[in-house]
Amino acid sequence: MSLRIEIDRNAAGAERTARIHLAGRLDTVTSAQLEKELDPMLDGRLDSLIFDLAGLEFISSAGIRVLVHARKSIQAQHGGVLMVNAQPQIVKVFEIIKALPGLTVFESEAELDQYLAEMQRRVQEGR
């Protein structure tokens, strides 16, 4: 499955806010697509970036890296990034990443991605 990206500039009537709707899979293949869309928005013209994750079904470490880069760029300009409407398996990934800051647990990105995929599958199956 691919990644669909819809960008609403001036979200909620705020001139310096963009809302980005993501649907599908944000993985090694599709993260470059999101990065290409985000890069022009990270030049200091935005105060807020809102990621609407209602349609996002899967996220890999490459996808997380793109979101973290966007957050760091916006925060460096004293702005903020929000994530909204995340599905349970995506929330679980964010919880795991937050729970392990700076701690190396996986030997490679491939191992991390395999773990994240399995964990998300289990959440979707209700285990």
Summarize the structure.
The protein is α/β, with parallel strands linked by helices and 127 residues long. It has 4 helices and 4 strands; from the N terminus they run ββαβαβαα.
Structural overview:
There is one protein chain. The chain has four helices and four strands; from the N terminus they run ββαβαβαα. It has helices at residues 31-38, 61-76, 88-99, 109-125, and strands spanning 3-9, 17-26, 48-59, 80-84. α1 (31-38) links the parallel β2 and β3 (48-59). Helices cover 42% and strands 27% of the residues. By secondary structure, the protein is an alpha/beta fold. It has a four-stranded mixed sheet, with helices on both faces. α1 packs parallel to α2 (61-76) and α3 (88-99) crosses α4 (109-125). It has one domain (3-125): Transcription Regulator spoIIAA (2-Layer Sandwich), CATH 3.30.750.24.
For this entry, give a set of tags.
127 residues; alpha/beta; 42% helix; 27% strand; Transcription Regulator spoIIAA; four-stranded mixed sheet
**CATH class wording:** Alpha Beta
CATH topology: Transcription Regulator spoIIAA
The helix/strand order is: EEHEHEHH
| Overall 3D form | globular
Range of strand content: 25-35%
Total domain modules: 1
Q: How are the elements arranged and paired?
A:
Layout: E1 3-9, E2 17-26, H1 31-38, E3 48-59, H2 61-76, E4 80-84, H3 88-99, H4 109-125
Parallel strand pairs: 2-3, 3-4
Antiparallel strand pairs: 1-2
Helix pairs in contact: 1-2, 3-4
